[in-house]
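Exam revision sheet. Question 4 asks you to relate a sequence to its structure. Input first:
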Amino acid sequence: MYRAWIVTLIALSSLLVATSSVSAHEEYVVDEEQDVGLVEFLTEALTDPFVVGPLLGGAVATLAVLGGYLAIRPLQQDIGVFRFAMREYSDYVPWLLRISLGIPLIGAGFSGYFISPALEVDLRLLQVGLGFLLLFGFATRLVALVGLATYLVGVAIWPTLLLQLEFIGGFAALALIGSGRPSADHVLQRIAGTRGTVYRKLDPVHDWADAFQSRIDPYERLFPTVVRLGLGTTFIFLGVTQKLLQPALALAVVDRYDLTAVIPVAPELWVMGAGLAETALGIALILGFFTRASAATAITMFTLTLFALPDDPVLAHVALFGMASALLITGGGPYAIDGTLERLATDAERADATPTEATTE
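Answer key, structure tokens:
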């Protein structure tokens, strides 16, 4: 029974990931759109049984598999060991996020665009400076706040930057959790906190930084929640605006890379499937529903996209990779459905236990 559920889950996941491999930033890989309007596309797609049927069938099958998994809960020991192993990397999450934000900024600065490859505005010094400070982990929270403010001002001037919406969640999460280690902040704080050092007398911000750290410590547990919200919102935005609301652009991607030869289905199914899959994945991340599985699915989608769409710039996905990887380590965190499901499972196990077993626990 367990094997059947596992095989079914793998098959559905493969189909989901395959149809989502068109999950690129479409504006980065095509210049011209196909001549089709939104109403025309939706009318044709939603009246075609070969489009609606697979979408409904896939949704029902996915819900059935998830429900079956929650009822049977196979591989619990394996999953428990995996979670424990991933938590061992928790100390490196800030470093991971710093790298995943710093490298795209440096790359954007030297490549002559501002955050998004679709925006050719040369702000080299600003981006390279912020990027290297993040990589070194120097004044990380301040740099993250400056980066967030820079992005928000940029969005107000150039709405195209919304294509890299994940930078809001990434900068906010980094401002919350700080630099971690290894970082320049950690080393300097250690030197400044040691009695008798010359640097302790010269450091003007050590006491202030300690006070700020003590105030923000209780909120650092919200880091996974902030990352979930940022990454999930990005998925929903890209799925809706780049595919469902711009079918002409998405169809051009399908046509350029001949994706219907990979999976011989209607181009409309490719677009609808990818858009709805990204939207559903974004909702799952925001709700914290199967967070690690959703993050792993996201990483797989990004990887397939880079191979399937070779013109899609790698740097445009690095921040997404980093945020998804962080969730793979931390899990859903506070205010996630995963926590509720785990508590319900624990209560059910205790209710099923014999009095002797319950007392032993």
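Marking note for examiners. DSSP finds 19 helices and no strands in the chain.
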